[in-house]
Amino acid sequence: MITLKSPREIHEMAESGAILAGMHAGVREMIKPGMSSWDIEEFALKYFKEHDAIPEQIGFEGFKYATCISVNDEICHGFPRKDLIFKDGDLVKVDTVVNYHGAMSDSCWSYVVGKSTPEIDRLMDVTKKSLYLGIDQAQVGNRIGDIGAAIQHFAEDENGFGDVREFIGHGIGPTMHESPNVPHYGEAGKGLRLRPGMTITIEPMITMGDWQAVMDDPNGWTARTQDGSICCQYEHTLAITNDGPKILTSQDPEFDAKYLL
After folding, report:
1. Domain carrying residue 82
2. Of 109, 178, 207, 235, whose CA is between 20 and 30 Å from 130?
3. Could you read off the pLDDT of 138-169 as tens digits, one per residue?
4. What is the domain count for the chain?
5. How confident is the model over 49-86, as pLDDT tens digits?
6. 194 lies in a domain?
7. How far apart are CA 156 and CA 191, in angstroms?
8. Residue 33 belongs to a domain with what CATH number?
9. Does pTM surpass 0.90?
10. Which residues make up the binding site for a divalent metal cation 2 (predicted)?
11. Which residues are annotated as a binding site for substrate?
């Protein structure tokens, strides 16, 4: 079922999103070679507690952690671990969902550890631009397919990267995953028409190689690229409004100025 949010509910989700964005800003400052992905998990737990927020992922279908932390060829749903030690050039994706007094927000951000490479920089740049091209299509009257088509064309046709199909965006609030599904590929003009009050995530996962994923981790959660290529992801929660798409998880108000409430 698709729930349409009131302006009050959207503002409450933006408050949740501000907490989530603050957590990501903290990760950006702390991430470095020699630390573990478990250090990020502990930081997130402490940050959410200090801000009276609940890490909504804990307990979801048996998931045990506040964060998903996926490194290099891991696409998504990586477990934070004490023995996963970061080194120069690792590409780390940190994904989490926050419940703040009943309002949900969901965001993933990618971080390069220490010294980057031109190839990693380009992948991150294309992935972030793909996200914002998708957001630009999240207009009242457009269709879900317009979002996916914009992302797929830019990532694959213009830049030669892989656009993961197996994992997609979704509706959010009052629960973590709701309708509609929001694929990052597709055909313009096809799919559900977007209406004011919808709140969705857009979260492209873009690879240096092919788009196929494989579930080969014994934990039953973590997906990797089938060809071992590095994957990047960026994700925002946004509201569909008559004034255009409004990002609810912004980390950079100046950059996102035209998308803010």
Report:
1. 7-256
2. 178
3. 999 999 999 999 999 999 999 999 999 999 99
4. 1
5. 999 999 999 999 999 999 999 999 999 999 999 999 99
6. yes
7. 21
8. 3.90.230.10
9. yes
10. 106, 170, 203, 235
11. 77, 177
